[in-house]
Design goal:
Length: 298
């Protein structure tokens, strides 16, 4: 049985956009949809509710939120299998737990009460940095959210996760769109300086030679990272690119022409902190399209 696509919902505009995106994704991949609302309202209201004999207002609000969101999802597609759940736990803990039995987690870029267009909220960041399943943060304009570009962007780095590459190929295949695989490269500053011994021997190395060397190495590593998945998905059109510059800036800039940006993340057993990396952190805050963080077990 296919694991469900889990969406964290809180009634905010951001979570409603995430739900719309998730409905399309679930239909594309033949997945059931599970809507989860998590909060700690019972810590503050349960005693008062017991004294009054009424249901806690926080519980009523949570149930109304998931019910309304489920109706919105059904209106978008009546054939989709949808389940809902209200969890009396910290949202991060609840979503991480839900992710243990999910094909992926989908979240909006901001929660209730947060000002629109600011950086990624704390819940989304914590979940993306710790979950053991793919996490999709739905951000960007409507054109990218509704797959208007016809392109998926994959960032391939030195520690690129094979799981992220496979995820990208499957997504491009399901969408029947082009996969843009990008690897950024840079020439270390010291290498551009003329070495005294080389100069004395009459063989000065130009900065352009160093650039060509590093670009060639980046191209070879990109091909190696894509080889297996490209063989398994021969119908996917792949555009390879090696670009000079910091990876985080390259990917954020190119995200403006993509419907989904995919990056990998390493997961180290026993490590309790955020496991995201500089590139993942930057794109989650600044990308102009939805971002998928795909973990790779150590």
């Amino acid at each position: 049985m296919e694991l469900p696509l889990v969406v964290g919902v809180d009634g905010s505009d951001s979570s409603l956009r995430a739900t719309d995106w998730a409905v399309d994704h679930a239909l594309r991949h033949g997945l059931p949809l599970r809507l989860v609302n998590a909060s700690l309202w019972e810590r503050y209201e349960i005693a008062a509710a017991q004294d009054s004999g009424k249901r806690p207002s926080g519980q009523v609000l949570a149930e109304n939120i998931v019910a309304a969101t489920a109706e919105r999802a059904r209106y978008r597609n009546r054939d989709l299998k949808i389940s809902t759940e209200v969890v009396r736990e910290d949202p991060v803990h609840a979503l991480l737990q839900a992710g243990e039995d999910a094909s992926a987690l989908v979240l909006g870029s901001h929660g209730r009460g947060e000002v629109a267009d600011l950086l990624l909220g704390s819940v989304g960041l914590a979940v993306a940095a710790r979950a053991h399943c793919p996490v999709i943060i739905v951000r960007g304009d409507d054109f990218s959210v509704h797959s208007g570009h016809g392109h998926i962007l994959l960032g391939v780095g030195d520690r690129s996760a094979p799981a992220a590459v496979q995820f990208a190929f499957r997504e491009a295949e399901a969408r029947r769109c082009t996969l843009d695989a990008v690897r950024a490269w840079r020439t270390p500053a010291l290498e551009t300086l003329e070495h005294p011994l080389e100069a004395a021997a009459g063989h000065p190395r130009l900065a352009a030679e160093h650039d060509r060397l590093h670009e060639s190495q980046a191209s070879a590593r990109l091909d190696e990272a894509l080889r297996e998945a490209a063989r398994e998905h021969p119908g996917v059109r792949v555009r390879r690119a090696t670009v000079e510059g910091p990876a985080r800036k390259v990917l954020v800039r190119r995200s403006a022409a993509a419907d989904l940006l995919i990056v990998g993340a390493q997961r180290r057993p026993g490590h309790l902190g955020l496991q995201l990396g500089v590139v993942g952190h930057a794109v989650l805050h600044h990308a102009e399209c939805p971002v998928a963080v795909v973990p790779q077990p150590a």
